[in-house]
Write a structure and sequence with these properties.
six-stranded parallel beta sheet; PGP-like_dom2; Rossmann fold; PhnX-like; two-stranded antiparallel sheet; 235 residues
Length: 235
């Protein structure tokens, strides 16, 4: 049995494939103000709370980033994302649902943390058929609008610990596909912090961070913990 009690995973690009629509919606919402968005800056702020991402992308592009403009951009971001998801629904990344089942069958609680607001995350989870509670495949979901600040702050991870009854942060595994996912995991004090290569970043990118390691996918996490996925699911 693994010593890990909780696995906290990012959503978009980590556990589900949303076809890059978050990137498109975020970029278009900021560019609607006439502000240029560089690919490097966009990548830097992926995974963060989306209001904070918009605010910083505006300022990096030379805009004052006043609160009225930030609010307008965020409203546009949510509208665009809903339209994109309606046209091309997100799907679980290969092997992820099996990995979630294997972890939970082995006694590891599973939580999702996300830079999405609660309404956007709910839309995603409903479309996937993922849920918490009896009969669900998750133990907790924490959104950035439920804590004082999103990534790279560690608060969503700590809130996931609260909701799943996990006391020791050293027994937490954190995994995500962006730099801020890793930074939040490190800041939380998690025992294992993993980068995964299912987003825009690869091993060389995570090698420059304080991640414990990086893996091709969340699907590899049970094996990384020494779990036999087939045996665990069969229990």
């Amino acid at each position: 049995m693994t010593s890990i009690a909780l696995a906290a995973f990012d959503m978009a690009g980590t556990t589900l494939d949303e076809h890059g629509d978050v990137y498109r919606a975020l970029q278009r919402s900021v560019e609607s103000t006439g502000t240029a968005v560089s690919a490097e800056d966009l990548q830097t702020w992926m995974g963060a709370d989306k209001v904070e991402a918009i605010r910083n992308l505006l300022r990096l592009g030379g805009h004052a980033g006043d609160e009225a403009t930030v609010s307008e951009c965020f409203d546009l971001f949510r509208r665009l994302l809903r339209d994109f998801y309606a046209a091309n629904p997100p799907t679980p990344l290969p092997g992820v649902e099996e990995a979630l089942r294997a972890l939970r069958a082995s006694g590891v609680r599973v939580a999702l943390t996300t830079g999405f607001s609660t309404d956007v995350a709910g839309l995603l989870l409903d479309g996937l058929g993922w849920s918490t509670g009896e009969g669900g495949n998750l133990d907790a979901v924490v959104c950035s609008d439920e804590v004082a600040a999103g990534r790279p702050y560690p608060y969503m991870i700590h809130r996931a610990m609260e909701r799943t009854g996990v006391q020791d942060v050293r027994s937490v595994l954190v995994a995500g596909d962006t730099i801020v996912d890793v930074e939040a995991g490190v800041a939380s004090g998690a025992g294992i912090v993993l980068g995964v290569h299912t987003g825009k970043l690869g091993p060389e990118d995570f090698a420059r961070t304080a991640a414990t390691a990086s893996l091709p996918s969340v699907a590899e996490v049970p094996a990384h913990l020494g779990l036999d996925a087939e045996v665990a699911v069969a229990r």
